[in-house]
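Shall we go through a protein fold together, starting from nothing but its sequence? Please make up or recall a protein chain and show it to me in full. Go ahead whenever you are ready, and we will take it from there.
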Amino acid sequence: MQPAVSDSYLDNTSLNKLKLQSKMESKSALKAVAAEFESIFMKMMLKSMRDASFGNPLFDSDSAKVYRDMHDDQLALDLSKQGGIGIADMMVKQLEQYLPKQKLEQNILQKTSANTIDSTVSKYDSSIKSPQDFVKTMWPLAESASEKTGISPKVLIAQAALETGWGKYVVRKPDGQNSHNLFNIKADNRWGGDSATISTVEYMAGTAQKKQANFRVYGSFAESFDDYVNFLQQSPRYSHALNVASDDVGFVKSLQQSGYATDPQYANKIQRIMNDRPLNDALTNLSLQEKPGGGTI
């Protein structure tokens, strides 16, 4: 029996039914679960588009926003059922090739990453299983980069966490080789090293668009931090951001304004990670506290 995608976004039981059935019929459930994931992705895309808009004063009341969000949620689900934008089909093709049948649905659901990199081409890095593992691994590298730039290690960790989903979705080459690219720096004509080509989401005039892009490949996470430092210092467009490096909020805002990322919420997302519990709990548990002017106590 082919499982069906829910007809209404208010149906909170459909995904649980798919989970249960996928344990017994992984292959048949795969397409339906991928369609559910695609609807979630389109909801996120619609929300980002709404957030990027200046809005209309006539229709921006709280009640109007509620009904608008309900409409967007149902629209995303209906579009997914009608064929979507190709993400579900791509995920089915990718995952059928290398995942054990009983793990197909589980892996799809785990790939709901905030990162703009297409999650279907990124493999989970088993060496980093939690934000605390990520912070523990990256903090010494962030401190070294901080000494060279004046950027807070916490800001650097938050940005890398955003770009890679806490290290779970680092860009990989088709053969599975880890790019160690923590800041998703693209491989343009200034780059003479190895690269990996994958699908990514770019925002053009506030609208998310899927594109193919080349990303730099490094031999280690340390090389990624070193190249990030060089990338900022050697490009005049980021001179203002470096001039305000000691101001965490000012730096991330200037970084976005300088064109580092096309996501209109990029700076806000970094700030949210800096203020949220995962990062701060990890710093507390690892007894990492910043000194005034950088470093740790």
Notes: The first strand starts at residue 195 and ends at 204. The chain has twelve helices and two strands. The CA atoms of residues 59 and 68 lie 9 Å apart. The chain has two domains: 14-112, 131-285.
